[in-house]
Known about the structure:
By secondary structure, the chain is of the alpha/beta class. It has four helices and five strands, in the order βαβαβαββα.
Amino acid sequence: MINWIPLTSSIQVEDLIKISNAVPCAVFKHSTRCGISAIVKSRLENSWTLSDESMPVYYLDLLAFRPISNDIAALFSVRHESPQLLVIHKGACVYHASHQAINANAVTALKGIEN
Length: 115
């Protein structure tokens, strides 16, 4: 189960970067009006096995907070897509995927990065 952390401000993005120095953080960018995004979100929720402590997961509602998505794209040099999953570790994007390529198992395989 994923305990989503709503991402609603640029200050939270700054905090996320700081937190990523200790543990990797995931950001799921979701369009609430897109059927594909809803399917991917559900699939991610059903296959996620990481604990909140090992990888906090932030949820970004793209329709409500598009400027934050733009900031994330610029900060991490990743093209904006939706749905999209990014993993931030030590202030850098170490994984990103969009649409059907989003895969919880691939994120779990990254777990060694926190050591």
